């Protein structure tokens, strides 16, 4: 984004209504729409029930023909009689299979009814309930006491103030949110189709839950489908909070890019990491060292005013809010609109540990799965009420805000020069096409004696493809990859040894450094290959000019 939006998330939602609209809560309608869309996107998917009906009809007709021949008095030999008995046996078996399918359909309907009932319960929240009314009143009071102005949501800001390109980008992100369920069910349908294409002898040794047309296979698909519905329900609530159409809006629109849908999946994983009890282990690995380091190197108690901190790459906001809860004045910064929509929702929509959502973050993960249930494992969010996490004196509450936009474009601005006491960065420095740019901007925005605290790996998100000898020249290499974002062709990957020298040359003193800080990142703890890094923790202080 071209401009920074100082967004006071903690001021949103003062008039929040807890009753959600029917279009957001009607998960039965969502089930139907996603099932239809998934079928449209994969014409090769076999309808198991329809196939079974076809077999049943054909075999029943054969049996009827045999009966007619018998009534006309045709002579039959022993072989024909045996054949007729076999047909009758097949018909009986088919009828039994039909009964099983009907029974399974009833079970599926019951599960769907349970989801609908859960949605209905949310719709029917009694806003006059004494306990709920008290919670809402306390939330409003806590927000009002800070005295900061109420801002529009990030979606509304983009629609009102940004360029046409930014508005188109917002719509493309929302489109990916809306279509997540259809994309995910399409992937599942493709997987099932590949199984159906296996040789019958291969299929014969598969578990019952993988064999085409089996009752167990249908039940497994329905469990996956239910998990998709839960995720889409959460995403629809995020869109509703942003004032944007959701998956039930019956829009005629183009398909989102696979890359954008993948980012929506990353949002779900980030919500798990930042706002679930299950994600606490990851937060302890990554956030706790930064929180302790901030208290050590920038103590609130000895400052005449709350130290001012920036948290770049803030994601869905937990680290920034944890720092604010310690009494710091904090501004989170995030470039991804996918993440900003979710952080706006989780910080301001009114969901609490008493009123949680359930999400299934790893549905699109198909590798290194130990048990089937691990892929559809559900987690509850949030684990804390974001408002009540700020247990500070409200009369002197420090400001907590979010700046939406690219880090360098915001903080390289002269208005940000020597404005901040600290930068607290988790898994951030390696997101730069050139890490030197980040280090120089951080140095310029810090006051003398200001501190950079960083924990993370050097994965280098923009690391580009290798050059080939037959590219002929650097120009040939660039021409071959002209379809890529230019940042993939500009990235400079350097070692931590090089990074430290850059920091010292720019004007930092390294005052603390720790290696082999193990930290998982949005990792399924049940995975056979967790997303795990051996990170470096670093504290660098801006030295006085010589």
Could you describe the 3D structure shown?
With 546 residues, this protein is α/β, with parallel strands linked by helices. 50% of the residues lie in helices and 12% in strands. The protein has helices at residues 22-25, 27-41, 48-71, 78-123, 130-145, 154-161, 164-196, 200-203, 215-241, 258-275, 280-297, 318-325, 337-348, 372-375, 386-389, 407-411, 435-445, 474-480, 496-506; strands at 6-7, 308-312, 329-334, 357-359, 379-381, 400-404, 420-426, 446-456, 508-520, 532-542. The strands form 2 sheets. It has an 8-stranded mixed sheet, with helices on both faces. Helix 2 packs across helix 7 (164-196), helix 7 (164-196) packs across helix 10 (258-275) and helix 10 runs parallel beside helix 13. 34% of the residues are buried. The model is unreliable at 1-57, 63-77, 121-129 and 142-152 (pLDDT under 50).
Summarize the structure.
With 546 residues, this protein is α/β, with parallel strands linked by helices. The protein is 50% helix and 12% strand.
The computed structural class is: alpha/beta
| Sheet with most strands | 8 strands, mixed
- For the largest sheet, list the strands in their spatial order: 1-6-3-2-7-8-10-9
Helix content: 40-55%
Instruction: Give the strand content.
Output: 5-15%
Count, helices: 19
Write the H/E string, N to C.
EHHHHHHHHHHHEHEHEHEHEHEHEHHEE
Distance between the termini: 36 Å
Number of strands: 10
Shape: globular
Q: How would you state the average pLDDT, rounded? A: 80
Enumerate the spans where pLDDT stays under 50 for 5 or more consecutive residues.
1-57, 63-77, 121-129, 142-152
The radius of gyration over CA amounts to: 29 Å
